[in-house]
Amino acid sequence: MSTDQETKSEPHSGYDFGAIEVKWQKRWDEQKLFHAPDMPREKYYLLVMFAYPSGDIHMGHFRNYIIGDAMARYQWMLGKDVLHPFGWDAFGLPAEQAAIKRGMHPAEWTVKNIEVSRNTLKKVGISFDWDREVASCFPDYYRWSQWIFLKMYERGLAYRKDSLVNFCATCNTVLANEQVEDGACWRCHNPVTKKRLNQWYLKITDYADRLLESLDHLDGWSERLRTIQRNWIGKSTGCEIRFQLEGTDFEIPVFTTRPDTIYGVTFMAIAPEAELLEKLAIPEERKKAVAEYIAKSISKSEIERQAVTDDKDGVFTGLYAINPLSGDKVQLWIADYVLASYGTGVVMGVPAHDTRDFAFSKKYGVPIKVVISPVGGPAPDASTMTEAYIEKGEMVNSGAFNGRIGADAISAVIDFVEAKKLGVRKVNFKLRDWLISRQRYWGTPIPIIHCPKCGEVAVAFDKLPVELPTKGVDYIPKGRSPLADATDWVNVECPKCGGPAQRDPDTMDTFICSSWYMLRYTDNKNDKAPYDVAKCDAWLPIDLYIGGITHATGHLIYFRFFTKFLHDIGMCKHEEPAVRMFNHGMVSDAEGRVMSKSLGNVVSPIDVMKERGVDISRLAMYFAAPADREIPWSNEGITGVERFLNKFYRIVEQVAKAHPGPVDLAKHYDVAGLDPKAKEVYTRLNQTIKKVSEDLDQLQFNTSIAAIMEFFGAFSPTGGSSNAFDKYITSKIVQVIAPLTPHFAEEAWEMFEHKDSILKSSWPKYDPKAISFDTVVVAIQINGKVRDEIEVDRSADEEAVKSLAMSREKVRRTLKARRLSKLST
User: Fold this and answer.
1) Given CA atoms 445, 447, 450, 451 in this order, what sign does their dihedral have?
2) 66, 149, 468, 572: most buried by Cβ count inside 10 Å?
3) d(C-alpha 215, C-alpha 199), whole Å
4) pTM higher than 0.90, yes or no?
5) How confident is the model at residue 597 (pLDDT cuts 50, 70, 90)?
6) CA-based torsion, 324, 325, 327, 328: positive or negative
7) Which helix or strand (DSSP H or E) is residue 195 part of?
C-alpha cells in the first residue's frame, strides 16, 4: 500500500463508511422501513418540494433533502407514522430546455434524469417512501391534472380570453406574472415583452380574500413569507368612480384608495395596454404619437414602469373627461407608470397629493390643485410645492366636504358617490388571474376541443387522459405551440356534433403539476380518482413543508388555491395544505453564486460521499450554518466533523466490547447515588438530550451537533464497574445523533446488540431531576479583580460561602487583615 493510501484511510479508523452505508441502505430497503401506511395512527406528513429532473441532484438539493430526512427520522423515533414521499416536477421549461440543448427528446431526457437522480438519492440514504413516487410527465398523473382543470372549467374558474401577456422571446412562451422577476424570465433571465394572445386563465382572484385571510392562521409560516404573500395579493379598499368622456355618454371607471382627493384631479392616466383605449376615438392629429408611445411603453418591464423616479412618461390623447364631483374638465393621458393589471387600468391624477402624479405634472405642465391640508395648519401652496403632500389630512377646496379629516373624509366621499350613483365602494386586489397557457410541447395538454359550430367543448372525464403525443412531433418551440402542427393529434371529431374540430394546442403551466402533488402522494396508485378522500384527509395537512422562499409568490400561493378549491368540491376537508413552512437557505459556490445547473457551478453529493461518506458530509452541511441561512459549500469544513465522528465510533467500539450485555435505556439514575464524575456526565447527558430535542423541533441542526460535541468534551468511558453506565450514556447519545448520522447510528445500535432499527427505538427523554448541577462556581473578587473560584453547594447560604472563600490560600494572602465583602457568581 502506498503512503498516500495509508494517509487517506488512517483517519477513518474502524469506521468503514462505504461498507456501512451500503449495508444499511440495503437493509432499510429490504425491510421497507420508510413505508407509510394508508391510514396513520399518529401522523406526521413531511414534504420537501418537487424536484425538476433537468440533471442530477447537487449539494443545494442535498441540503434540502437531508433537512427533511433528519426531521422524518426524528418523528419516527417520537413514535409517529411518517409520510415522507418524493416525486418529480417533470413537465415544463427546465426539463424541456435541458433536453433540447442536448438534442434529445424531452421524454427520453426526463426519464433518464429521473433514474439518475433517484439512484443518487438512494445512495445518499434519504428516507423517502419510494412506493409513493410520482412523476408529473406520466399519463397516470397528468390525467388528474386535466380532471382538476375540467372541474374548474365546470365552475367557471377556467376561462379563455384575448389579452396582452408576458412573453419571453428566448423561451418562446408566455409567462404568468409570478414568473416575471425584475422584468425578466424566471428561467432564462432574459427581458420579457408583451404580446396579445388568446390564453387560458384560472380565476384565482375569486379566492383572493380567502388566500389573504387564512394567512393570519398560518402560525407555522414565517412572518416574512406571509408578508410577501400579503403584498403580492395586495388588497386595497376604496371606491370605483366613473368619469364621463367630454361630449359623450362614455364612462371611464377609475379605482382609488384616496377618494378624499377627488377635487384635486387635474388629469387622468390610462395604462398603455388597457383594453379601454380601443374604445376611445383618438383625434386624428394625436393618433401617430399615441400609437408610437403605446408601442414603446409595452416593451418595457413592469419594474421599469413602476420605478420611483421623477422621469414619468406619457402622451396626451387630445381628449378630456369630466370630474363627476367638481365638474372640472381634466386632461386624458396615457402613461406607462399605470398598469392595466391594477384596478381598471386608469388612475385619477392628483399631482398635489401623489408622488408619481406630481413628477408627471411637473414634466408635462399639468395643473396642480391642493385639496388636502395638514390638520389645523396652512394648506400647501401649489406654486411653490417641491413634492406632493401625501398625508391623510383635512379636505380643502373641496366644496361641501371642506373640513372633513382622514378616514372620515374618505368614507364621506364614498357615501356621496354611492348615493348619487356615480360609483361604488370596492375592494381591489393586486393579484391577477393565473395565466396557465404555454406555447410549449412538454406539458399537460389542455383537455378542450374547439369546434367551429359548438365552440369550446370539454373532453369527457371518462376520455381522460388526453395524452401528449411522443412521436412525430417537432417539439422545438416556435412562438406557438408545437402541438398545433401535430395534425394527427390536433385534428379530431367534435364530441357534440361529430364535425371536424381541433384540440387546444397549448399545454399547461408546469406549476399546475405542483399545485396538487401533495394530495396525490396520499394515494398515488389510484386509477379511479386523483386520490381517495379518506386517505387524503387522514394525512393532510402537511406538518412540515420544506423548500425555498423563492416560491413565495408562485407555487406557495398556487398550491394554497388548489387546496381551497378541492375543499370546496368535497375532495379535501382541509383548506390549507401545510401548517408549517420552513424556508431553507441556499447553497452557493466559493464565489458566492447560488449553485445552479444553468450556471454550471454545481457540486455532486456523490463525489463528496465517495471520499468522506454520507454521514460525515451530512454533519458538515448541518454544522456549517443554521438551516435557514445561505451556506458557501467547501470541503474544508469536513475535517473537524470527520475527526469527531471517528472518535465517536472508537468510543462505541470500546464500550460495546467492554459491556456486551443489555442495559435498561428506559431507566433514570438516582443522581444522589452517583459519584461526582458520573453525576457530571449524567447531568450533561440530560442537558444534551434536552438541548438536541429542542433544537431539532426548531430545525437548528448546527447547535444540536455543537451540543453533542460539547458533551464529548466531558465524557470518556471509564471501564471497570462503570461499563454498564458507559453503555447507557453512549447509547443515549447514539440515539440523539441518529437523525443526523443515520448510517453511523444504525451500525452503533447493532454493535450494542439491538435487533431492530434505531428508528424503532423511542426518542430519549431527559431526566428533569438531572438537567442542572447541584453545585455552582463562585468567583471571589477583591477590589474588582477575580482572585479565585470555589465550587459550592447550590443551597449554601452566604455565610457558608464566605467561610469557604476565606479558607482559600489566595484569598487569605490577598486580603491579609481586610474583610471579604462581595460575592459574585
Assistant:
1) positive
2) 66
3) 30
4) no
5) low
6) negative
7) strand 193-202
